[in-house]
What we know:
By secondary structure, the protein is an all-alpha fold. It has one domain. The chain has nine helices and no strands. The protein has helices at 16-34, 36-49, 53-67, 74-89, 97-108, 111-114, 118-131, 139-147, 149-178. The protein starts with 15 loop residues before the first helix and ends with a helix.
Amino acid sequence: MISDYVKGKKKFDYPPDIQKGIMLHRAIDTFTDFHEATKEAKKIFRPQYRLYSGAFVDVVYDHFLATDEKYFTDESLFRFSQDVYESIDNNLQWLVEKFAIMYPYMKEQNWLYNYRTHWAIEKGMTGVARRAVYINDAKPAFELFEQHYQLLQDCSRHFLAAVVPFAENRFKEMQNQDA
């Protein structure tokens, strides 16, 4: 959860398991950036948002992961979200300041669970715009999401079918390096 806020060699400031999480997150980010489905999905947002198109696609992917019953039912996603918040609560001392400021809102509003809803995606896109240097308005991004919902869902399904085994294999490799 904190890896987007941990830059470069700062990862070595963390315990080995958190370092592994940061490295796994970075590997997934790289895989995501170069996947054909992501390139296709970015085309929807690129004319309006250029370099930030990938950030909007990340939010879109979160939505489709949360709504895909192949990965989560309503109940299992809720349980998963609570487990994640409990894990974060047990490791508050490791939170990067920017994430630590945002985290209480994330937990209170249960962002992980509510990514199932369109209002939470709209809110997530507003968050991307607020953190971006050159974006004033996320409303067009949400409109693009709604207009191209089926295409984005198709991209997401194609991407998820590839990224899940990639992440599982990378995680196993990391675990085997310790053995």
